Amino acid sequence: MPNIQSARSPLTRQEFEIIKIVWNLKTATVRDVYETMREKRRIAYTTVMTMMRIMEGKGQLDKWQEGRAYVYKAKHPKERIIKEMVQEFVDRVFNGCPEPLVSQLIETCKIPSADRKKIK
After folding, report:
1. b/e per residue 61-94 (b: at least 16 CB within 10 A)
2. Which fold has domain 4-74?
């Protein structure tokens, strides 16, 4: 499977926030995403609209019209995008070797011993 950069541009922090909302809602209008984002922070409706339009252009969202509104859906499943993002991170930060990442996670995160056994 190609990495996220070869398939499409990597998701920015704000794009990832948007796509997580779309995944959660299954399909969403700009208004749906805007209202969800506004619960956590101030953001302009036009910013959300522009970001979603960019994401559609990058091949991250599909769009169709229902009545007067456009409805968006994630073009790729959550599992695929997360897998590609993790692989891109491991390639970029750890030169493609996942062992240092796992060591860092075990060292940094509070992982119960039962979960540590699963990891081993």
Report:
1. beeeeeeeebebebbbeeeebeebeebbebeeee
2. Arc Repressor Mutant, subunit A (1.10.10)
20, two tokens: 């997580």
Q: What's the pLDDT at 8?
A: 56
Per-residue pLDDT of 77-90, as tens digits, reads: 999 999 999 999 99
| Angle CA 101–102–106, to nearest 5 | 120
pTM attached to this predicted model: 0.79
Q: Where are the domains of the chain?
A: 4-74
The tens digit of pLDDT for each residue in 30-56 reads: 999 999 999 999 999 999 999 999 999
**Residue 62's beta-bridge partner residues?**
73
